[in-house]
Amino acid sequence: MHIAIAGGGLGGLTLARILRRHDIEAALYERDASRVARSQGGLLDLHPESGQRALAEAGLTGEFRAEARPEGEEHRIVDPSGSILVHHRPDPGSFDGRPEIDRGVLRDLLLDALPDDAVTWGHRIAAAAPRPGGGFWLAFSDGTGADCDVLVGADGARSAVRPLLTDAPLATVAVLAELTIGDADHRHPELAALVGPGNLWCVGASRILAAQRQRDGSLRVGVTLPPGSRQPRSYGSKRALLEQFDGWSPGLTALIEEADGPPVVRRIEALPTGTRWPHRPGLTLIGDAAHLMPPVGEGANQAMLDAAELATALAADGVHGIRAYEEAMFARIHPVAEMSARVQAMMLAPTAATDIVRFFTPAT
């Protein structure tokens, strides 16, 4: 059983690692030229029932705890005036919740747990097709190719493998503009104090200004806006973003003004909630390729759990285990995707501040 994994993100790497713990090798193809070819993004919180469970099955709990930041769970939500609406403080040093870890560090943990030749770098899959005698043929963007008996699409939002299983369309659910403030403690101590050790959400009517403390002491700033009729590129300057926060406290909008460069703007897309496909022997998807959701904290966690459950199914029942994995994954993901869609809509609603406070405040 020759397994190919398309995509070397967190899901694909977790799958390769756990398969190897079952003495099953897989060829993993990644479009990045190397492990340091680009930034892997900001921090993410790993949930005990999903991301942390997958790392336990990968045998990497100790390594995770050595690198994670439980204090990064601290979360402040403020209104446009800067008044605190919610302030969550985690137990110091506790790993009982959802400790934060840098995406790049987490990716390195998984890469370091694999042989040096486990990932074939610089191989973006341009197309995938079934072979006449069974299995699949992969065509890479450099003109080369490879074949396999089992193909797992872990290649993200714009998956080249997904069309073999479903033509479900992507829908734009938001526009995200990202900025960075480097060395915040020394250069902008007032902003470092505002954000704290974890996350800050500044919530107004149909818009979010958020910031997150990074491992290197920088602040990662994100502006989330409704998709509307404007093209994302129209938000490509600080001035254009600041226009969206007219009347907000200058102490908050300084997160945009003091950023080190212009914003990087992109669409946030999602697959329809409830997306599924008829089983096809030897072929399946994990992570964003299978169930792209709004980025509200579940994507990486569910991708890693997908990987753990698929690896277990393949180890137990070979290629026949894929069907059981898919049925369990569809059932698990449906409520998670529904919740993610609700939270995304709530964050960009005219009543976002009231709704989010209600969401994060336990009923008494």
UniProtKB/TrEMBL annotation:
SUPFAM superfamilies named among the record's database cross-references: FAD/NAD(P)-binding domain
Entry's Gene Ontology molecular function annotations: FAD binding; monooxygenase activity
Cytoplasm found in the keyword field: no
Any matching Pfam family: FAD_binding_3
Assigned keywords, A-Z: FAD, Flavoprotein, Monooxygenase, Oxidoreductase
Keyword field contains Flavoprotein: yes
Domain of life: Bacteria
Protein name (Swiss-Prot/TrEMBL): 2-polyprenyl-6-methoxyphenol hydroxylase-like FAD-dependent oxidoreductase
InterPro entries reported in the protein's UniProt record: FAD-bd (IPR002938), FAD/NAD-bd_sf (IPR036188)
Domain FAD-binding: 3-75, 283-316
